[in-house]
Write a structure and sequence with these properties.
52% helix; 26 strands; 22% strand; Beta-Lactamase; 8-stranded mixed beta barrel; 5-stranded antiparallel beta sheet; single chain; binds ligand C2E; alpha+beta; binds magnesium ion; elongated
């Protein structure tokens, strides 16, 4: 029973007592009056008696009256308190309503729960979860449940007076809601201390939690940003720095946080600058610009700084937020880009763009002052082969060393440039004679050994020269002419210097015409194929042939493959030419086969054909089309073809070989192939280049090289074919050396298929 009810009951009792006392007094007075009327005599004694009896009654009545008055006052007061209480209650419940704060009261003895706002919080009606505490567990997030349980136990056991926990529950809608509970045990068993009743509040804090999460995210973003950030309070204290700030400046957080901004060395050193920033901040609220700042170690660095003033909700004075990035790296990249716009990264020589600019200026000057200029363009012969056999790293080293040597020899040059992979261009003052002298000197110096990865390499160049004003006046024409001269050196095997002249002009014009003619011939499928026999040196029989392309030009007669094959390679026509030769060869081999003559036909394959990725499919189609057994087809690949992209070549060769096609390495000994690679290529036949037979013949140690190559081929499990056998002595020697096959004019020149058939018929 509460205090208020007690007071009420006590007042009621007092009221009844007073009521009886007043009634008794009135009864006495009435008795006296009756007595007075009946006796009609008033004596002193009577007055005294009346006074004796009535005075206490009057006094008692007065006391009663005043007590009653107080009582009324008390009741009135109580009524005011009660209405105030009701008023407060209403206010509290309105406040609770507004705050969405739920109240719960948990009677642990009966396990009953009173819970306000139940539906708002859980989305369930109370009767949907009758045994609330038992049903709560499945609703609580499994990650939070152990924490909630522990907090409750701690509170119930009295370990923690206050129960507090944040946890997630699954709302009926299926979404997770964050709740915050506060509570206390309010009643315990006086003997055992067991908790009997617990009171608490519960609040849905999902939105706050989300805001907290966002805040946390924003904080993390700030903290992990690559841009340095610091915040200065209105009283000039550094109140925040992020990790990027620490990384860039080298200051630790302890050295900065809560320190006066001007006491930090780097800011103090640029005080004047910051003061001017501060002035613009006052005017415009923000500032952005570049400044040179110092790190903790005193090193200077450029930074791009953005500063804003921010007023927070309670402060009248502004906070300053500053964000900056270190420009050191971007400056370096900029410098690098500027460098690369003009220079070649590998060699440090001028690049093509700078060369053209300089040449343009120098030509304009030369026109004005009637001076002579010469353009020298050159490439390193067989550079691709070096690159492929030594590896690209060594190739780069070689280029660097070559560029150094070129710069050391051509000190008088106007400009030296690396214009392409292994191509260089040099502009010199003077005419073609001076250019020739310098080129010879250069060629000589390049013959001296270069040491790359413990290998000694000697280089040769193909050099083309063109002069102003003797050969041309325009930059582009001069460049073309020098390049044609260079190409003519290349087509003659390199290691040459060629000044542009009329013959070159003529031959480049001719080449252009020839290219047009070749296109036409290929369109009409008019390339012929001749067959050159290969003699089996053990049986003395012709068992194989090499297919060689022949072009009969209507005006120029037979054109050598040494002319049209490189032309086809340069102009991209080689793939068409290659497939036409391959088809005619397969057709002929099949024809012989079905006539009962087994001749293995070898077809030359160019690098581009191997690169194209369609060679295997083309071969398959032709073998199918002509029903030719794969063993009757051989493909010849030169060393340089294989070395262009050795790894890719190995894969393609393997799949050709899996079909039963024989593979040969052609012109062996001319292509600088790496012996380690030779071992990895799936090869069946090694063809010794004609040049070996010739050098061997004239030399003191006759036959040594050929013998070594034959041994090498056999050692690697290959059959060996000697090419270009022209006399019977060579043939005899090759037999002695154990060579397997011979091919050459001594046996027969390449001939049309009909003539080849006759050759075969003769031998039986
Ligand atoms: P190769 O594949 O090494 O062919 C052998 C070359 O040596 C042929 O020259 C052949 O006529 C020549 N030869 C053979 N025996 C002798 C001899 O005893 N003495 C001399 N001096 N030469 C001999 P050809 O037909 O002029 O071909 C030259 C090169 O052109 C071939 O060298 C080959 O690399 C290329 N070639 C020819 N036809 C084709 C083709 O269809 N496709 C491709 N990619 N290249 C081809
Ligand atoms: Mg060949
Ligand atoms: Mg050959």
């Amino acid at each position: 029973m509460d205090k208020h009810n007690l007071t009420k009951q006590r007042a009621k009792k007092r009221l009844i007592l007073h009521y009886y006392s007043a009634t008794a007094f009135l009864a006495l007075v009435a008795l006296w009056f009756i007595f007075f009327y009946t006796t009609n005599a008033i004596s002193l004694l009577q007055v005294a008696l009346i006074a004796f009896f009535s005075l206490p009654l009057i006094a008692g009545s007065y006391v009663l009256y005043s007590q009653q008055k107080n009582l009324h006052q008390e009741i009135a007061n109580h009524q005011t308190t009660l209405s105030e209480l009701a008023d407060q209650r209403q206010k509290i419940s309105q406040a609770m309503e507004a705050s969405k704060l739920a109240l719960w009261e948990w009677d642990l003895e009966t396990d009953s729960i009173y819970h306000s706002h139940f539906f708002d919080i859980f989305g369930y009606k109370e009767d949907e979860i009758p045994h609330f505490m038992g049903h709560l567990q499945p609703l609580v997030h499994p990650d939070d449940y152990p924490r909630l349980r522990q907090a409750l136990i701690d509170s119930l056991k009295g370990r923690n007076a206050h129960f507090q926990c944040r946890f997630r529950v699954k709302h009926k809608s299926g979404e997770w809601r964050w709740l915050e509970d506060h509570g206390e045990v309010v009643e315990r068993n006086s003997v055992t201390g067991t908790a009997k009743k617990m009171l608490g509040t519960r609040r849905d804090i999902t939105e706050e939690q989300e805001k907290d999460d966002y805040l946390q995210l924003a904080w993390k973003a700030f903290e992990s940003s690559g841009e340095a950030t610091y915040i200065i309070s209105p009283d000039s204290k550094i109140i925040f720095v992020n990790q990027a700030f620490v990384d860039i400046t080298g200051y630790s957080r302890q050295e900065l946080l809560d320190k006066d901004f001007w006491s930090v060395d780097c800011f103090a050193a640029t005080r004047d600058f910051y003061k001017s920033i501060s002035r613009s901040l006052k005017m415009e609220g923000r500032w952005e610009g570049e400044l040179v700042q110092q790190r903790a170690n005193g090193e200077s660095y450029p930074q791009w700084l953005r500063v804003v003033r921010v007023l927070n909700s309670s402060q009248q004075k502004p906070f300053t937020i500053a964000i900056f990035s270190d420009l050191t790296q971007s400056r370096e990249v900029e410098a690098r880009l500027n460098y690369l716009a003009e220079y070649d990264e590998l060699t440090g020589l001028a690049n093509r763009g700078q060369f053209y600019d300089r040449m343009h200026q120098r030509l304009a000057q030369a026109r004005l002052y009637k001076e002579k200029l010469s353009l020298i363009v050159f490439n390193i012969d067989r550079f691709k082969a070096y690159n492929n056999s030594l590896g690209h790293h060594a190739g780069d080293k070689l280029l660097k060393l070559a560029a150094e040597r070129i710069s050391n020899v051509l000190t008088s040059a106007v400009i030296i440039s690396r214009t392409g992979g292994n191509e260089f261009a040099v502009l010199i003052n003077g005419d073609e004679d001076q250019a020739l002298l310098l080129s010879e000197e250069l060629q000589e110096q390049m013959h001296l050994p270069f040491n790359v990865d413990r290998q000694e390499l000697r280089l040769t160049l193909s050099v083309g020269i063109s002069s102003y004003p003797d050969h041309a006046h325009e930059l582009q024409v001069l460049l073309n002419q020098a390049d044609q001269a260079r190409l003519s050196c290349k087509s003659l095997g390199g290691n040459r210097i060629q000044v542009y002249n009329d013959t070159i002009r003529q031959s480049s014009l001719e080449l252009l015409r020839l290219e047009q003619d070749l296109r036409k011939v290929l369109e009409t499928n008019e390339i012929e194929v001749h067959f050159q026999p290969k003699l089996d040196l053990k049986t003395g029989k012709i068992t194989a042939a090499e297919a060689l392309a022949r072009w009969h030009h209507p005006e120029q007669g037979y054109i050598s493959p040494a002319v049209f094959i490189p032309l086809a390679e340069r102009t991209g026509l080689i793939e068409t030419l290659g497939i036409q030769v391959l088809e005619q060869s397969c057709q002929q081999a099949a024809q012989w086969y079905y006539q009962g003559i087994e001749i293995q036909v070898a077809v030359n394959i160019a690098a581009q054909q191997l690169d194209s990725g369609s060679l295997v499919q083309q071969v398959d189609e032709l073998l199918n089309k002509y029903e030719l057994p794969a063993s009757l087809l051989e493909l010849e690949l030169t060393e340089s073809t294989l070395m262009e992209d050795a790894e890719a070549a190995i894969v393609e060769m393997q799949s050709l070989r899996n079909r039963g096609i024989s593979l040969a390495i052609d012109d062996f000994g001319t292509g600088y192939s790496s012996l380690s690679y030779l071992q990895r290529f799936p090869l069946d036949v090694l063809k010794i280049d004609r040049s070996f037979l010739m050098t061997d013949q004239g030399s003191k140690n006759q036959g040594t090289l050929t013998r070594a190559i034959i041994a090498l081929g056999h050692g690697l499990g290959m059959r060996v074919v000697a090419e270009g056998v022209e006399d019977s002595q060579q043939l005899e020697e090759l037999k002695q050396l154990g060579c397997d096959f011979a091919q050459g004019f001594i046996i027969s020149k390449p001939v049309p298929a009909e003539s080849f058939t006759q050759l075969l018929e003769q031998q039986y």
